[in-house]
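Q: For a teaching session next week I want to show students how multiple molecules come together into a single three-dimensional assembly. I've collected the sequence lines for a complex. Could you give me the predicted structure tokens for the whole thing so I can convert them for display?
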Amino acid sequence: MSNRLIDLQHITKSFDGQMVLDDLNLYIRENEFLTLLGPSGCGKTTTLRIIGGFEQPDSGKVIFDGKDITTLAPNKRQLNTVFQKYALFTHMNIADNIAFGLRIRKKSEDYIREKVKYALRLVNLEGFENRMPDSLSGGQQQRIAIARAIVNEPKVLLLDEPLGALDLKLRKDMQYELIRLKNELGITFVYVTHDQEEALTMSDTIVVMNQGYIQQIGTPEDIYNEPTNAFVADFIGDSNIVDATMVKDKLVEIFGTRFACVDTGFGSNKPVDVVIRPEDLELYALPDGVTADSPEYEKVADKARELNPGFLEGTVTDLIFKGVHYEMDVEANGYTWLVHSTKLFPVGSRVLMNLDPFNIQIMNKPESEDEQAVSSADL
Amino acid sequence: MKKTISRIYVIFVFILLYAPIAVLIAFSFNNSRTRAKWGGFTFKWYLQMFQDAEIMGALRNTLILALLSATIATILGLMASLSLNRMKRRNRTVMLSVLNIPMLNADIVTGISLMLIFIAFGQFLTHYGYTIVFGFGTVLVGHITFNIPYTVMSILPRVSAINPSTYEAALDLGASPSQAFRKVVFPDILPGILSGFLLAFTLSLDDFVITHFVKGPGFDTLSTKIYTEVRKGIKPEMYALSTLLFLGVLLLLIVVEKGKGARNKNRKPAY
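A: Of course. Below is the structure for the complete assembly, covering every listed component.
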């Protein structure tokens, strides 16, 4: 994972006067599993198609392995694509589908037979040579599409939402399959998806995109734990994003309550956005009929203060059982907090709510108009 | 009981449908000039038919016409389908409706209009020293005209069913644009092209009305030949000829349907 294999420089692309990519800069390293993640229309597929050669950028360069391939035809590029809807050749059997690229390159039939066998073994579909694509399930067809691409030994495999048409269980299986394939083949994967969970599971690097701009580039951990703006925080997993004021270093005021946090360098008395993941909120049940001045209230509050000097008080307004955890809405200070907890707090119960200083993620408020548009974008 | 009645009814319908043809076929083997009595089984009408130069000429005309008009109509239909498929939805709907009207239009109207336009165009051409002779050329143009909508109907669905990614996938795997079209796109449309061609061939083979209006004197296809001969008087060779024409068309239809069936078997949903 060292040198840059693909370098996209100042890529701009618009369709019918509509800007799709605006001065996009991105490099992809050798042997990396890079995911372009974003909502539909964010430009991720266009980026992939520019790498594949199916679209030409209006301006900017595509550098592949040190060479400028911006205007090179797709059939001359050393990369292969797995398309969203498989795009198998329906009039050919599986072996002929997989052999297509090798036959174009005039390899010997003996070599082709071996390679087809090898590719089918890689995707766990040995013995499928003589089947027709239509007789295969969606998951099997997708594996064939992958086999057809990797049999050509490309340096880079481009995957355009390849699991989009599969059901949840199959999608999970295929995710592991893809990771295994990538490790076995040792080639670079560029993966496009709108599914944040898929991106977090498989990627070495995630590129979060929105409205033609890159929002954040980082490892899955970075992206999840330290989103750079409200869009990324909102798009990657569930989160509570609230207005707050940074009182001073390591102290933030949320809805009038001061919480200890770990962030510094935001200045004093500065408005910020705060991201709090639902699983980070800790709930403490208040017994029925307890008022704020009673000793029983203080007992619960003391427990809450162990985590962080500040805490919020609220009422559970909604409850859904999600299997591993309960998902609750907690109404507090006029904001509906999303809370995940393994403990059950019935609807209507009063709770105190607190969280660890480490789990308060402070972000600067968007300043430029572009960023403004990004963070307020409707998902 | 109910089942027996429904079965009898079905048999009755089929008798009504096929009795005339059965009678025709039977008489083509009748060793007697009159239709009143059965004179024994014979092939002589078939032999006479094959020895009749006029009938053989008409047969040759018919086959050449069918082959040429079907080929040209299929090529035009393929081109039309490829561009219709690229049109915006609204324009395509309008174009398809325009294309469909001639199919529903009465043959006789199509025939007379074609005849009129040939005459009008011919008069226009006389100013430049050319003439239009009614005969093979005009009939060919007529057949191509009425065949085009049918070839489009067969080819367009195949063209629209093509996943645009398959073409790109072929490019991606190293094929040049022309290789991608020949190896991937064309085979996908081929069944539609074949069934469109066969349909056009059949329609051209058994067309009478339009041919009748645009053929001019001295040129005959099988159907117009049968018509003129039958008007002159009973000629059992004509029964033989009609039988052959019927069997020819039947054979073609079976081929078309068989092709469709085979394709549908392969075409079950993937998931």
